[in-house]
Write a structure and sequence with these properties.
Blueprint (H helix, E strand, L loop, with lengths): L1 H34 L4 H19 L8 H18 L3 H49 L12
Helix pairs in contact: 2-3, 2-4, 3-4
Length: 148
């Protein structure tokens, strides 16, 4: 009977060790899963960055060949690489920089278009002024003659 009690005690102890080991393994898996998920703030920042890059493209920054848009795109790609390495602080910093670069590219593209439009308007005004002056000055043959 004593052997049976000893055997049952050993089985109970083995069950406890098994449950503790299983619990530890599950907690480790859960912690790894949480650690591999980027923080919510980073996910939101990446969405803002992507929207800014798209806005810059739509504003014509890509067709204007602005290096700021390429810089923003490169930093966004580097941020993704850092996320894959679980370097979330670095990824956040790069994503913020990329957003600012994209916003700058967008504003610069808009400013370049405004300057171009202003220059075109100035050329048009000058042409109209020249035309008005030409019509305002009568030619010698059509000048009225006075007979005093």
């Amino acid at each position: 009977m004593r052997k049976l009690n000893l055997l049952l005690t050993n089985i109970a102890a083995m069950r406890r060790v098994l449950w503790v080991s299983l619990g530890t393994a599950l907690m480790s898996v859960a912690m790894i899963g949480c650690a591999s998920t980027p923080p919510r703030a980073l996910t939101e920042q990446l969405a803002k960055t992507d929207a800014s890059i798209e806005q810059a493209r739509q504003s014509g920054a890509a067709s204007g060949g602005l290096p700021e848009l390429q810089t923003a795109t490169d930093k966004r790609a580097r941020a993704q690489e850092e996320i894959e390495q679980h370097h979330y602080d670095i990824a956040m910093h790069l994503a913020q920089q990329a957003q600012l670069d994209a916003q700058y590219a967008s504003r610069k593209s808009q400013a370049d278009k405004a300057i171009s439009s202003a220059a075109e308007l100035q050329r048009s005004n000058e042409a109209l002024r020249v035309e008005a002056e030409r019509k305002a000055i009568p030619s010698d043959s059509s000048a009225p003659t006075s007979t005093d």
